[in-house]
Structures are given as C-alpha cells and as structure tokens.
Design a protein that fits this description.
Elements lengths: L1 H19 L46 E3 L2 E3 L20 E3 L2 E3 L7 E3 L54 E3 L19 E6 L2 E6 L5 E4 L4 E4 L29 E4 L4 E4 L31 E3 L4 E3 L24 E2 L10 E5 L7 E7 L11 E6 L5 E6 L20 E3 L1 E3 L3 E2 L8 E3 L4 E8 L11 E6 L1
Parallel strand pairs: 15-17
Antiparallel strand pairs: 1-2, 3-4, 5-6, 7-8, 9-10, 11-12, 13-14, 16-25, 17-24, 18-20, 18-25, 19-24, 21-22, 21-23
Length: 457
C-alpha cells in the first residue's frame, strides 16, 4: 500500500527538479543556456538576481520605481530593452509604454517619431500587447532588433528620442516636445497649457524677472522696454539694461527730462557766466534784462558794453532778435546791392536783418546773399520766412541753414542758374526774408571781428 505513494513522491520530485533546472522556457521559447527564474529574470555575474531583488545586506540598490537589470537600474514601464520585465526587448520602431511593447502610447501621451507601421488597429499598426503578442519583444537573453544583446543602458525614448527612434511624450507639458513633437523650449522657458493653448512660457529663476517684450529673463531693477523708464524721454537700450537719456543728452531731475548737453537744468549750471540764470530747464542760460554773456570776463554785460580781453568796445547797432530785426528797404531788380555789417562777440549772440525780394517775372532778377567779409570764416547765416524759425528751402537743395552764400535759381524744366525768357519761376519764390547771422562754432572765443553781407537781386 505504501509503495505506490513512494513512487509517486519520487516522480513528483523529478518533475520539480526538471522545472527548477531550466529544462525549457516557461513561455515556450528555446533554452538560452543561462539559468533563470519563472519571471524571465537572469542571474547576474555576482550571483544576485535581476528584477529588483535585494542585495546581500537586504537593501535594494535602485531607487523607488526602478528595477535592477543586468547591473543597471531601469524603469520597466518605459525601457524598450527591458519592457515589463528584464531582458524583454521591443521590436524595431516600437515603444515600451506601461510595460508593453507597441506602436501607440497611453493618453495623454502622443507617439513621436512614429514609424510607417504605426497606425490605428487594423491599419498596419498594433495597439500594443504583451511580449510575443505582436510586440516583437524577445525574452531574457535574446538579441535586440539590431542583433546585439541588452547593454543595460536606458532606451533612447527615455531621453525624448534619439532623432529617429519613436518615443512617447506628453505634448501639454514636455519641455522637449511642447505642443508638437520635437518643439523644444528655450532657456528659462517651460511648457504649459493654459485655456487649451500649449506654449513655451518664461519661468525666471530667483532674482530675475520676465521681460515679455524681449522674451527673456532679466535681472530685477533693470528695464525691459522704454516704458519701464521713470523719465519719459529716457530709453531702454536693451532688455536687462539701464534706462538712460539718448546720446548727447543728460538727465535733468529738476524737470524730470533729458536735456541737451549745451542746455541748463538749474541756475547752478550757469556758474561759468556770473549773473546768468536758467529760467527754463532744457534751455540755454540767459543773462537778465537782455544783457549779453561776455565769456572773456565770464559775466553778463550790456549789449553795448565792451567784451574782449583787450578791452576794445564792440559797437553793433543791428537787432539781436527776429522781432527787432534791422529792416532794409525793398530791393529793386538790377539795383544797387545792399551791404550790411555787424558782429557777434560771443557764442549765443546773433544779428537779424530783414529784406524783401521782388517776385515779379524779370530775366534780370536773381536773388543773391553772400558774405563780402567773413574773418576766419567765423560766421554763417540762416534764412527764415517768419520769426517762428521756419527755414526756407535753398535753391541748390536742402534747408537754408548755416550758409555762407545763397541765391535763387530759375525753373524751365530742370532748375537752371539763369533765365533765358520771361516764362520762369524763382526757386524758391520768396518775398520777405529774415536773415540770422551767428558764429559758426559754439566754442569760438569772443572777438570784435566784423562781418559784411552783400544782398542783391
């Protein structure tokens, strides 16, 4: 009665020994020649098992969520060379998603670098599946798609693709695939989806602020655009820069504006000339009561006072403003030229003369103004049609400013210097003209040098 039981026990022991001894693969595959357990994991060189088993001291060498395969920690849910369990290699152009090889990704992820085989079920692609069910995965110890063995390195798709291999990505928040596969966000940008719109947005580190105008992060307390500047006339040279006045101008805190380098901000700027004040920030220093600035004595003096280092008195009867310009009688065609002399002893002084040209049609008419005398070329003149400073257009082109000679041209088709018939028009056709004479150089020293203009038609 007991012999059959003994024989049955021996038979069962032999069967168990064959199963443990690896007489065949559990999934029906061929014997790989290496020992393995029932989950397909292999024994490593140190005698320890892959598959996340603890080391000799009872602790796992891998972080939470990872498994030790071939001496390397990996994530079985996404590792195409260890998909679902160690040694399971996904086929060519497949991805490992959720521990399953296939041609698709689990929402909300999207398949990037999709191979031609990929597509909805029934159209050449597969929805995925366990290894050996259309996934093309090999068992432990099998070669990968290229014929090589498992290197134990993380698969390309874990790093966002290798330029050709397919991979899964969440396009709504993936910095390397923002809104579309391969659309990588730049420095200091992160991928976000707001109100259904996915885009790379600025995410600035501590101590910096977002500059939307320049789409960059800039240090705090710097400007992004000129709109950040406290002074209306200041500009922001570039994002991350400092507000500053335009070239050649300085900041006037009294008027909270940028002013020219030759203009004053307060009366303290007028200390170079005793008695001068700054009545309006952004304008030139002025002497009171219509006096003139005498740079040789660094003081304000009367218009008729002497203003040279040698003490010579400079007499100049001409009007000093457009409103009180010295008026000359109307010129006559072919008549005697008018000669006008004057002087401007220092920078900022000026003489004004008013003349009236004829505008009648006459072949002899030819308006002309030039310096008869101009010591050291110290003086120039402007021509204005009114006291608002509206400059005339010169016959030779451009505005009539800082000239030493001016004349009218005539038009018979293209402008010509002299008329040949009565059917012409002067260029420009002017009557009353205001002439402003002043020093050519702002740094010129005061002198009593006299100039003379010859005016004719």
């Amino acid at each position: 009665m007991h012999k059959p039981r003994a024989l049955l026990a021996v038979a069962l022991a032999l069967l168990v020994g064959l199963a443990v001894g690896g007489g065949g693969c559990a999934n029906g595959g061929s014997d790989t020649g290496s020992s393995g357990d029932d989950d397909g994991s292999a024994v490593d060189a140190t005698g320890g098992h892959e598959g996340g088993e603890a080391s000799a001291d009872g602790t796992s060498p891998c972080s939470s969520g990872q498994t030790l395969c071939g001496g390397t920690c990996t994530t079985l849910g996404t590792d195409g060379k260890n998909c679902g369990k160690c040694g399971v290699v996904c086929g060519a152009n497949q991805v490992c998603n959720g521990g399953t090889c296939g041609y698709s990704c689990t929402p909300p992820e999207t398949l990037c670098n999709a191979p031609p085989e990929a597509g909805p079920p029934g159209e050449g692609g597969t929805e995925g599946g366990a290894p050996g069910e259309g996934g093309g995965a090999g068992e432990a110890g099998e070669g990968d798609a290229s014929g090589g063995g498992d290197s134990g390195q993380p698969p390309a798709q874990d790093a966002g693709g290798d330029g050709g291999a397919p991979y899964c990505a969440n396009l709504t928040n993936d910095n390397n695939n923002c809104g579309a596969c391969g659309n990588a966000c730049g420095v200091d940008h992160v991928c976000n989806t707001v109100n259904g719109i996915t885009a790379c947005g600025l995410s600035c580190p501590s101590g910096q602020q977002a500059c939307i105008a320049g789409n960059v992060c800039i240090p705090v307390n710097t400007c992004c655009s000129s709109g950040d500047c406290a002074v209306p006339s200041e500009i922001c040279p570039q994002p991350g820069g400092t507000c500053q006045c335009p070239g050649g101008e300085t900041l006037c805190t009294a008027s909270n504006s940028c002013i020219g380098s030759n203009d004053c901000c307060t009366s303290a700027d007028c200390a170079a000339v005793s008695g001068a004040t700054c009545p309006t920030p952004g304008q030139a220093c002025q002497c009171p009561n219509g006096d003139k600035a005498c740079l040789s004595t660094k003081s304000c003096v009367a218009q008729t006072a002497c203003c040279t280092a040698a003490g010579a008195c400079c007499s100049d009867p001409l009007g000093k403003s457009c409103g009180v310009a010295t008026v000359q009688a109307a010129l006559t065609v072919g008549g005697t030229p008018v000669s006008v002399s004057g002087l401007s002893t220092a920078t900022g002084e000026e003489d004004w003369i008013q003349v009236t040209f004829n505008t009648e049609t006459n072949v002899a008419f030819h308006g002309h103004i030039l310096f008869a005398t101009n010591p050291n070329n110290e003086f120039v003149f402007d021509l204005a049609s009114d006291c608002k400073g509206t400059l005339l257009t010169c016959g030779e082109g451009g505005n009539c400013q800082a000239k030493t000679e001016w004349e009218e041209y005539y038009e018979q088709g293209p402008p010509i210097p002299n008329p040949t018939s009565l059917t012409w028009a002067p260029v420009p056709a002017v009557g009353l003209v205001n002439i402003r004479v002043y020093r050519a150089s702002a740094s010129a020293s005061p002198t009593c040098d006299q100039w003379t203009l010859t005016i004719s038609e």
